Amino acid sequence: MPPTFVILGPTAVGKTELSLELAVTLAEKFSDSEIVNADSMQLYRGMDIGTAKVSLSDRRGIMHHMLDVLDVTQTATVAEYQRDARAAIEQIHQRGHAAVVVGGSGLFINALLDDMQFPAGDPEVRLRLEKEAEDIGTAAMYERLVTRDPIAAAPVLPTNLRRIIRALEVIEVTGAAPITSMRELPEVVPAIRVGLRRDRSDIDSRISTRVELMWQQGFVSEVEHLLSLGLEQGVTASKALGYQQIVSAIKGECSMEQAKEDTVFGTRRYVRRQESWFKRDSRIHWFDADSVTADDVITLANRIGST
After folding, report:
1. pLDDT by residue for the chain (307 residues), tens digit each?
2. 123-174 carries CATH number 3.40.50.150
3. Cα(115)–Cα(110) distance, rounded to whole angstroms?
4. What is the value of pTM for the model shown?
5. CATH 3.40.50.300: which residues of the chain?
């Protein structure tokens, strides 16, 4: 069976470049290699500049999967990603190719690789909870979740209403909290997990540079176009970092300069959450982003007997 590699780490650490380098190197060992995206916002068509999606011309001829599979009005769910990304990897292996998963969405990565299960919900229960949230607010709904199951509430951000409602829905329908990756679950897709790290100050600087470049590349125009396609109606796409801030500026709720500053601040805060998430997984092999090469990753795989 050809191997599966995972290149993970926080935003702006340098995952894309290593994933491309690794895919090219693996193609020499196997008949070919293909890349599977594990960034939840790169699933959306048209969300290119703000997600730092690798352009078609920069993909080095490598086939990419799980990019541009949703309209901005659709909801990205972990369960659907798990199903479709696992199917993509299975098809890659059937072709005799190596698979390289790359991204920074920890929940999506764990759902893809591990035995994470997603109980069926109840649309009527969900609708009732959504109406209650409109009446009492997100904070009150989060407090309800904490009261009912503090363990289930721990990995959920107090501001993430969608995940709060989902947890409450599962608890009400099944009597048990949804399974999360607060602990390591059995691996379903065997993989070599490679984490990239940088000094905090380096990451912060790279984020500032990246956001400035996005504005120069036409990020505002991208958001304006997506608004015409229904971005504000999207449950998940509309909350993406940068997109949400630019929409606020377009609506006159803040200046565009403030939107840029808020994007930098929000991205840095998100990086802290990513680092906290990945730190829990003892199966990740960490490398310094500035010095790691594809050959280092291959050497690691040979040492643990995975190629």
Report:
1. 789 999 999 999 999 999 999 999 999 888 799 999 999 999 999 999 999 999 999 999 999 999 999 999 998 988 899 999 999 999 999 999 999 999 999 999 999 999 988 777 788 998 999 999 999 999 999 999 999 888 778 778 788 888 899 889 988 888 776 665 446 789 999 999 999 999 999 999 999 999 999 999 999 999 999 999 999 999 899 999 999 999 999 999 999 999 999 999 999 999 999 999 999 899 999 999 999 999 999 999 999 876 5
2. no
3. 8
4. 0.86
5. 4-117+190-199+282-303
Retrieve residue 175's tokens: 């009597």
Distance CA 188, CA 131 (A): 37
Task: Report the CATH fold assignment for 4-117+190-199+282-303.
Answer: Rossmann fold (3.40.50)
CATH of 202-272 among 1.10.260.40, 1.10.287.890, 3.40.50.880, 1.20.1250.20: 1.10.287.890
Burial class of residue 217 in the structure, from the number of CB atoms within 10 Å of its CB (0-12 exposed, 13-18 middle, 19+ buried)? middle
Instruction: Identify whether the C-beta of residue 25 lies closer than 8 Å to the C-beta of residue 295.
Output: yes
C-alpha 65/C-alpha 102 separation (Å) is 10
Question: CB neighbours (10 Å) of residue 230?
Answer: 14
Three-class DSSP category at 103: strand
